[in-house]
Specification:
Chain lengths: 139, 139
DNA sequence: CTGAATCCTTCAGGATACTG
DNA sequence: CAGTATCCTGAAGGATTCAG
C-alpha cells in the first residue's frame, strides 16, 4: 500500500488501508474456508483437503503456509509414521473467527436480496441493450 | 461453488460456502475501500477516484458496477451538464459496513502481532535453509 | 500421509486513449 | 465529469508428478 503523506482531505483512506491488510490474510479464495474448518479444533491435512472440497492440494498447502506465517494457524507435527500433522487456530485467529461468523451471518441473511438485486440489474441491462439494437437498424 | 450433496461428515463446508459468497462481493482489492469511502454519504466518481489513491479509473468503474449489481450501492445520475453521478450505500451495505469495521478493528489491534509472526517465521525459514546448505557440501 | 516442484492456463488489474 | 474500449502483464490457481 502506497502510504505517502495522505494530504487528501478525506481520511477515509486511513481506515481503508488496514482493511486491505486484513484482506491479504483473509481474502484468498480459500483462507476463510480453512479458518472456519480449523476453528472446531485440531484438524489434519487430509481432513481439510476433503472437507473443503474443491481445493487442490497445492492451494491448501500454500494457504496453510500463509496462515501459519501470519500467526493465525499453529502447525503441529507428530513425528510418527505415517506422518501426522495437525492445524489449529491461534487465539488471535479465534477472535478473527468470531468476526468472520458475523460476516457469514450477514451473507446468509441477505443472500436472497443480493440475488434479487443481481437479477433485476441484469434484466434491466438486457432491456437497455435491446433498446440499443432498435436504435441501430441493420447497417 | 460446487454444491453437491455434502455427504462429508463435517458440515463445516455448509458454513464456509456463504463465506465464499461474501468474499465475492467484498474480497476485491478495492471493494471494501469503496464501501468504506461511500459510507459517509453520497460520493461522486472523482471523489472516489482521488480518495482511494492508487485505483485506476477502470477498476473503480468495474467495482462500482459490481457493487451496484449486488444491491450494495445506489447510483444516482443528475442529468446536468457537466454530468454528476453520486454513489451511496444501501441499508444492506451499511449493515455490512458495521461488520467490516469490526474486521478493520481486529486488523489494527493485531497488526504488529502479525508482523512479528511473519518476521520470526521468515527468520526461522532462513535458518533452516542455511542448515540445509551445511548438509550439502559442495558436490 | 504430507507435502514440494513444475508446468500451464486464466484473469484480475494497470496504463492509456477515446467519447458523450 | 464520468465513463468505455483496448492492450498487456503478473500473479493466482489447477493438474500432475516426485519425495520424505
Amino acid at each position: 500500500m502506497s502510504r505517502r503523506h495522505t494530504n487528501v482531505s478525506e481520511q477515509v483512506i486511513n481506515e481503508a488501508c488496514p482493511v486491505t491488510e486484513v484482506l491479504d490474510h483473509v481474502a484468498g479464495k480459500w483462507s476463510i474456508g480453512i479458518l472456519v474448518a480449523a476453528a472446531l479444533g485440531p484438524v489434519r491435512f487430509t481432513e481439510l483437503e476433503r472437507s473443503i472440497e474443491g481445493i487442490s492440494r497445492r492451494m491448501l498447502t500454500l494457504n496453510l503456509r500463509k496462515l501459519e506465517r501470519d500467526g493465525l494457524l499453529v502447525r503441529t507435527v507428530h513425528p510418527t509414521v505415517p506422518p501426522k500433522v495437525e492445524y489449529s487456530l491461534t487465539p488471535m485467529a479465534q477472535e478473527l473467527h468470531t468476526y468472520l461468523t458475523g460476516l457469514v451471518d450477514w451473507a446468509q441473511r441477505h443472500r436472497t436480496a443480493i440475488a434479487d438485486a443481481r437479477a433485476s440489474y441484469d434484466t434491466a441491462a438486457a432491456a437497455k441493450s435491446a433498446d440499443c439494437q432498435n436504435q441501430q437498424p441493420g447497417r
